[in-house]
Amino acid sequence: xxxxxxxxxYADCSKMVYWTAYSxxxxxxxxxxxxxxxxxxxxxxxKKIESMGDAQLKGWMYRVTVNLCMDLKRKQKREIPVExxxxxxxxxxxxLPEPAMISKEQRERVRFAIDKLPEIYREAVLLxxxxxxxxxxxxxxxxTTEGTIKSRMFRAxxxxxxxxxxxxxxx
Length: 171
Known about the structure:
Strand content: under 5%
Distance between the termini: 57 Å
Shape: globular
Oligomer: single chain
Radius of gyration: 17 Å
Largest sheet: none
Structural class: mainly alpha
């Protein structure tokens, strides 16, 4: 049995939790709130978590994060008119890794292209590139096969390439 501290859980899962939340809610502030709530829930269930393996822990944190996102979406559906929610989602900004390697304009184009992906592709891209999860881990978290994730990533890359190429031609 592995003894886990909330600090080690945070170190192991924080990126995955944030990018999972962001891929669903598409709002930086909401994703940060959900991340905080996910780790509060982990603290509440620390005894249960202590006996989990790494894969089980990531799966548990993923499921908690998705459930919190769905709760928020249901709540927002009741509270915020659709027009305001769409404007809020479109104005969301997040930083890409290695910002020094690409210009601000390029980062904005990539952010916009990722935001426009269908949710299943966007989630795979964010979990792989921003949470540094392998295809096998993403498949386990999503309760699907590694082949399905590879297919989603292939299609997501095609769509991103086309969107970025189109934006280049329009510039």
